[in-house]
Specification:
The chain has one helix and 15 strands. With 212 residues, it is mainly beta.
Length: 212
């Protein structure tokens, strides 16, 4: 079994004591149920698609669609959205959500399978949620199925963690090979930022790729 982990963060985040809540249940896109922690809730989004909303007591907020595991909104202290979603984006599962932080896996760009792979065209599941010192955290999971195997015949598990801090959002994508044969792949979080000045610079505080 091989595993590759790709953490990405806009700030350094020290996760210490976890305060978990388990009294609230919801149905995810596959009809399964899971518990949510404080600051993590599921609601109906565009196109009646299930959407996770992360909120912190400091006013920051993020939206994540289970379809494509796509973060579509990130606001700090009630301000303007820092992510961009194209005006012509559709929320009908017929094509990927155009904007936010879409997944590219197991292929980036054009190639032998569909553009940017299939991860952004599949329903992800919620496998964990927690609240770490008023910081909401949710973990999504994607596994192989008939749709993915029709174009890429490998067994895998993808875990995607999203952490909403007061002034930052952090993500971690972990790919595990659960097959009995090796495979190679490309992956990326193809982020769309909302900017008023196209010449503005962006500072990324942490980016690490680990091959375990």
């Amino acid at each position: 079994m091989a595993m590759l982990s790709m953490p990405f963060s806009f700030s350094n985040l020290n996760l210490r004591r976890a305060n978990r809540c388990s009294g609230k249940a919801f149905a995810n896109a596959k009809g399964e149920t899971a518990a949510t922690a404080g600051g993590v809730r599921v609601t109906e989004g565009e196109g009646n698609l299930p959407k996770i909303v992360l909120t912190s007591p400091h006013g920051s907020e993020a939206d994540i669609y289970l379809f494509g595991g796509c973060v579509t909104s990130w606001k700090v202290d009630g301000g303007k959205d820092l992510l961009f979603v194209r005006p012509d984006a559709v929320f009908n599962k017929k094509k990927p959500i155009s904007g936010g932080i879409p997944h590219c896996f197991p292929q980036f760009g054009p190639g032998p399978i569909q553009q940017h792979g299939f991860a952004r065209n599949m329903d992800w599941s919620i496998v964990d949620s927690e609240n770490v010192e008023d910081i909401p955290v949710v973990t999504l999971e994607l596994k192989d199925g008939p749709y993915s195997r029709a174009m890429w015949d490998f067994s895998f598990q993808a875990l995607y963690k999203v952490i909403l801090d007061t002034k930052s959002i952090s993500t971690e994508l972990r790919i595990t090979n659960t097959d009995n044969k090796p495979f190679s792949f490309n992956t990326a979080l193809h982020t769309y930022f909302c900017v008023s000045n196209i010449n503005a610079s962006l500072k990324i505080s942490s980016y690490t790729c680990l091959n375990n």
